[in-house]
Amino acid sequence: MAGDAAEDDRAGASFAARLAHAWRVLSGANTNGNSTAVSAAARPAAQLHPQTALIEALIDSLHEAAIVLDREGRVVAFNDDAVSIAPALRHGEPALISLRTPELVEAIRRAGKRREPQRVEFFERVPTDRWLEAFVTPVEPPGERVGDLVLLTFNDLTPLRRVEEMRADFIANASHELRTPLAALLGFIETLQGPAKNDVAAREKFLGIMQAQATRMARLIDDLLSLSRIELNAHLQPGTPVELAPIVRQVVDGLMTLARDRGVDINVAASPESLVVLADRDELIRALENLVENALKYGAAGKRVDITLARGQTRAGAPEARITVRDFGPGIAPEHLPRLTERFYRVDVSDSRAQGGTGLGLALVKHVLNRHGGRLSIESTLGAGAGFTMHLPLSSGDIPKTE
Ligand code: ADP
H helices within 194-328, ranges in order? Predict the structure, then answer.
């Protein structure tokens, strides 16, 4: 019987199975297994609340950390998740020894005094930084055998807090990015209305700058909207078969003027075999455009950009298409590589701004590839250029050529 319970534990026991086990413990059946409930029951009886095994079997089935105290504040029972919150928990000992957070201690005291559930949020630094939410609920079991109890359950709010922080950072960044060109525009408008009112040469110059700033704002809004659209559709895998070679050609054709302006040669080496992926064609074009544009902007000093399209294999051995954009410019220092795809992250902000960058390009590429079940890999050596590779799962089966 105890073996059954242990197996249940391993298999992520159902609540019903745990209840049955608890009942066996209560009814005095032989349970020498190694579930938490049984090991608790095996401890010296003097320290234990009479219903420890039952309570522990019940809270063990919760999907959150839980601790039960008696009315004197001694630990009656706790589940495995609770140990990660309070490693010093011991049956029969005062909870104050293991739960030292003042907010929590105060909530337990209030719950005991007012006999009302309490909710409290607190921050812990040990073992790691995290935000927790605790519900402290007084429980009055019927009958006299058990006595009043206090149930503590915990939720980890850290992921939620991180998302909130990211959202706040994102809004701050986006506003800042928009405010800078906006301030420039307002400044030039004032100058044109005032001191430079009749200065034709200054007017021409300022209008040129204003146009560049307005274009930057438009591009930023465009990128922000694209990002949010891609994120909204993140759960929908694109289903249209798309041949990749024509996409590479189209992107290169579209950026020829920029390449000429920068004095850069673009070389394309595409595998002769047809490489087809299930994709949103426009999104792939946008992503590849970003990579080639970056290579032309930041890697122009290398005078050459190589684009290759080839078949490869994922780490798991599945067939994939790889589009690599390699430049021979200044490259990127290794400490920046892991952060390049973060929104608004730039190695050199003024360089990016001077190039008309928004800091959103690589974030967009990453999101597009995620949505396609692929990924972006980046390799770079300082002084020796950078290579950005789009990995896309190849579509299997006989898919008619559509592009
Ligand atoms: P941006 O709009 O600033 O170009 P991206 O997200 O496309 O934003 O790129 C982020 C940063 O990565 C750029 O600001 C630049 O510092 C760096 N970067 C991107 N591509 C290259 C490259 N080919 N060579 C050197 N640095 C690059």
Answer: 200-232, 244-254, 256-262, 281-298
